[in-house]
Amino acid sequence: MTSSGKTPLPPYFGIDPEAAEAKLAQPIDTARFAKAAAFAAKGRDELARGGHVPDGRKRLRKFSTWEVCKYLITVAPAHFRRVLKANPDLPQGVGEGNSKWFSLEEVMELRSHFANEGAANREYLPYRPEGAQAKVVAVANFKGGVGKTSTCAHLAMSAALDGYKVLVIDLDSQGSMTSIMGGEVQDEWQTAFPIMARDYAQHVVEENKVRAAEGKPEIALDETLTEALTVSPRNLIQETHWPNIDLIGAQLNLYWAEFQVPVWRMQSRGWALWDALTNGLDDAGILDDYDIILLDTPPALGYLTINALAAADILLVPLGASFLEFDSTGRFFDMLYSTFASIEDGENSQRRQLGLEDVKFEWDAVRTLITRFDAAQQTDLANVIQAYFGDLMTTFRQDMTAMVGQAGEQVNGIYEADYREFNRDTYVRGRETFDQTWAEVKEIIVGAWWRDEKMNEMEAGNGQA
Length: 465
Description:
single chain; 465 residues; alpha/beta; 7-stranded mixed β-sheet; two-stranded antiparallel ribbon; 17 helices; 50% helix; 8% strand
C-alpha cells in the first residue's frame, strides 16, 4: 500500500511515450549483430576455458580410491589396496596414505588387470560381443531446452567411465557439445559437413559414369565436392580430455548443410541423402573402432537430424515434465512418422519396379526420457506423460539437482566435478540421476547386441544347413 492508501498500478500502466522514447538508442543495423556476436564469442571462450589449465586445454580430473571402488571397479577398497601392494608394476596412484588418486587411463589399466586376474563372476569390463559394430545412439527432439545436449554428454561420460570407447558427433551448429568436450573447430571442414558432401560427390561420380554411357551431360563437381572427395571421415575425429571419448565437433558454418543438402538432392534425385552419415561411418570403418557412437542433434527436424536418425540404432528423446514439452514431443513423433514414411513410400515405389527389396527404417529401441525433473512439482504430469508414451518411456526420471546446475555453469559434466567441492550426499545424488539414465540406456545397448549376436548365429546355422 502507498501512503495515500491506494494500491499501485501494474507496471505496464502509465508508461510515458516521451520518456520511453528517450531511453531508446539509435535504430539497430545489421552491423550491431556482428558486434554482439563478437562479444558473445569472447565471453563464451572465457567461460568455457574458466576451468582449463594455462595452455587452454581441458584436463580430466583424477579419481579417488573411494570413487574407483564404488563406481568404476567392483572391488572392496581393502582388497583393491592389497592388489596394488602385491603388484607394484600397476598404477599406484598419487597421494598420501589410503587416499590415492588415479587418472582414467590408470583406471582402465587396473580394470584390465582385474578382468584378467580377478573373480570370474565380476563385471570388470563392459559387455560387447566379439566383432560387433558400435551401437549408434541419437539424442533428438525439435524442442530446445529439454536437456538434449546435457543428456548426450553425460551418456558419453557414463559410457567412458564404464570402460567403453565412445565417439561423440556434434551435429548442432551451436556447438554446445563441442564446448563441453573441449573441442576446437575452425570451420565447416572440421565438422560432419565433409561427410555429407563426400557422400554426394561419390554418388555424382557413379551417376556420371551412367550418364556418360548413355550420352547424357554429366553433373558438375564443383570445388566443394572435389575437395570433399579427398577428406576421410577419420580425419575429422579429434581426441578430447577423456582418454576414451573422441569427437567430431561442430561450429556455426555446419548449418550451411541444411541449405546445401536440398540443392544437391535437386541436382540428383537418386541420391539417398538420409544415408550420407551412415555411409561415411561405415565406409571409413568407424563403426568397428568404437563401442558406442552418440549423435547430438540440432533442435529441428532438418537434414542433419534426419541423417542422425537414419544412422541411429537407438533413439532417445528428452523432454521436460511440462505440457508444452509433452505437446511438442508428440508433434515431433508425428513429424518423424511423416518424414520416414514418406521416404519409404517414395523409395519403395521405384525399388519395386526394379525388383529390389523395400527400404524399411527400424530402430532397436526408442525411448523418451524426462529431464530436469522436480518431484515436488511435476510428479502428476510426469505420470500422465508416462501413461501416454507407455513403452516408449524410460522408467527413471532425471532429477534436477544443485550439482547438475553448478556443473552446467562451469561447462562441465557432473562426472568432471570433484566430489570434494560438494557434500558427499549431494555428490552421490547428483551422480545417481545420470547413473540411472546410463543404466537404462546400457541395458538397451547390451540387449540389442545380444539379439544381434543370436540372430547372426541363427543365420549362420541356417546357412550351414
